[in-house]
Amino acid sequence: MKASIVVLPGDGIGPEVTREALRVLKAVAQKKGHELRFTERLMGGCSIDAHGVALTDEVLKECQASDAVLLGAVGGPKWDDPKAKVRPEQGLLGLRKGLGVFANLRPVRVHEQLLDSSPIKPDRLRGVDILVIRELTGGLYFGQPKGRDRKDGHERAFDTLEYSDFEVQRVVELAFRLAKARKKKVTSVDKANVLESSRLWRQIAADVGGRNPDVALDHMLVDTAAMRLVTSPATMDVVVTENMFGDILTDEASVLAGSMGMLPSASIGEKGPGLYEPIHGSAPDIAGKGIANPVGTVLSSAMMLRHSLGLTAEAKVIEDAVDRAITEGCRTRDLGGALTTTQMTDEILKRLS
Ligand code: NAD
Ligand code: IPM
Ligand code: MN
């Protein structure tokens, strides 16, 4: 098959990890006779430096016209001035909105050989296989109004957490569809004891649950979910939640897998290209050292093959190679090993079947 993929390496370790994912994608494409065309573009801080904005209209259009978008990470101290008018993260949010990718799939698996890489006790981690579905184009990130003004003689800042019924419904329905191919269990996470938006969320989730009696639905408050995620993660399967709760819970969940560098993600919408990125950021503390773990991005590229290009077997080839490399002891520094970013990828490449 032929496909065209826009690659947005971004900032910090973004270019270091996307480079490696591209090596893996190219190797698999060559092995299986697929023609993948990659177009690299600027997005994030690097785009601010070159064009004054984090995402140009031109790059957004190219992404919209592509089959899939692969992203490293954006941001960093250079662009972190709280007073700055433009921020790298605006590019990422604009891209997610512009592609309409309302569901961010973040699988969290714990590799048997990495039980000791987590600070959580191994007996709690065994068998963990969670799929967090994070709503991605609504909630606090996008609600209006947001801004600053003066109130009662004080400077005030405000954001708006809003959800419409259809935004909740489409992501919860997706969670149920995906749950049917798994353990038929959905945990909907909210803060319905406090937030009106969460009460709507819970009501819609219950409606969807009522129409899908073959799937068990439970509702959990987000603070409890944060606790359960480390005390009894193996009891969770599909978790669906609003934008910011999902962001925070998945960084927490990365601790189960041993490192932030391990977790991939796929952002998908009703139709059109998906967006694929690791859950980690630009990691300024290790950028430029060649030691970042490429696994999250390599696994994101496997998710791209599966969800956007329909290449299930090829996705599995990549996932199996990563699995074997880890089973056979290959580790970057974040997991207590000594392999560089490139050496870790070399080990994955050797194991592509
Ligand atoms: P971060 O995820 O970049 O880093 C958190 C910690 O995890 C750091 O100690 C880092 O070294 C480590 N880490 C992350 N990825 C790693 C990898 N692949 N291998 C080994 N270690 C890894 O979070 P942060 O430092 O809070 O944020 C840095 C910047 O990244 C900020 O500007 C933030 O906005 C941005 N960010 C971007 C994205 C994205 O583009 N999708 C996601 C998260 C954060
Ligand atoms: C992520 C990041 C982003 C988010 C930031 C950089 C906007 O933390 O992809 O998880 O909060 O969505
Ligand atoms: Mn995040």
Query: Helix coverage percent of residues?
Result: 40-55%
Known CATH architecture of the largest domain: 3-Layer(aba) Sandwich
- What's the SSE pattern? EHEHHEHEHEEEHEHEHEHEEHHH
* CATH class placement of the largest domain: Alpha Beta
Low-confidence stretches: none
According to DSSP, the number of beta strands is 12
Please, could you describe this protein's structure?
With 353 residues, this protein is an alpha/beta fold. The protein folds into two domains: 193 residues, Isopropylmalate Dehydrogenase; 139 residues, 3-Layer(aba) Sandwich (Isopropylmalate Dehydrogenase), CATH 3.40.718. It has twelve helices and twelve strands. A ten-stranded mixed β-sheet has the order 2-1-3-12-11-4-5-10-8-9, with helices on both faces. Strands 6-7 form a two-stranded antiparallel sheet. A hairpin with a 2-residue loop joins strand 6 and strand 7. Helix 1 packs across helix 10 and helix 11 crosses helix 12. It starts with a strand and ends with a helix.
Give the key terms.
single chain, alpha/beta, Isopropylmalate Dehydrogenase, 2 domains, 10-stranded mixed β-sheet, two-stranded antiparallel ribbon, globular, binds nicotinamide-adenine-dinucleotide, binds manganese (II) ion
What does this entry show, briefly?
With 353 residues, the protein is of the alpha/beta class.
What is this structure's SSE topology?
Layout: E1 2-10, H1 14-32, E2 35-40, H2 45-51, H3 57-64, E3 68-73, H4 88-99, E4 103-109, H5 122-125, E5 129-135, E6 143-151, E7 154-160, H6 165-180, E8 185-190, H7 196-211, E9 216-221, H8 222-231, E10 238-241, H9 243-257, E11 266-268, E12 274-276, H10 295-307, H11 312-327, H12 341-350
Parallel strand pairs: 1-2, 1-3, 3-12, 5-10, 8-9, 8-10
Antiparallel strand pairs: 4-5, 4-11, 6-7, 11-12
Helix pairs in contact: 1-10, 1-12, 6-7, 8-9, 10-11, 11-12
Bound molecules: nicotinamide-adenine-dinucleotide (NAD), 3-isopropylmalic acid and manganese (II) ion.
Residues 13, 17, 73-76, 89, 92, 259-261, 277, 280-286, 292-293, 296, 334 line the site of nicotinamide-adenine-dinucleotide (NAD).
